[in-house]
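Good morning C.,

I know you're traveling, so I'll keep this short. The sequence:
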Amino acid sequence: MMLFKALEDADAARRRAMIETDVQALATYLDDDLRWTHSSGKTDGKTALIASIESGSVVYQSLEVQETQISQHTNIFIYAGIISGDVLKEGTQKKLRNKFLSIWHITDERLSMIAWQSTGI
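The tokens, ready to paste straight into the viewer:
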């Protein structure tokens, strides 16, 4: 259960880094092999996702999760729930309300996200 709390904390820090455009902090929570699939179906790697945030193309203004569930499979964690928030995408204000599924792994006591998939609800 301590690892579940650590995962919740890591994900909260990841969301905070996205909102604050802290790309250095964000990079520490994303695995180099990250596959981030947006609700549109577009898939980005770590570099492209960070670049879109750093450039201001995507500005996350708020991100909150609820109804979360975590399961552990050795050093792999599946974290799912509902994410809602406000985002400015290429100048257009949008409200998010998506179901999400993320996969994290732990190596050397460090948690990092290796996959994200969200679907609008």
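Safe travels,
E.
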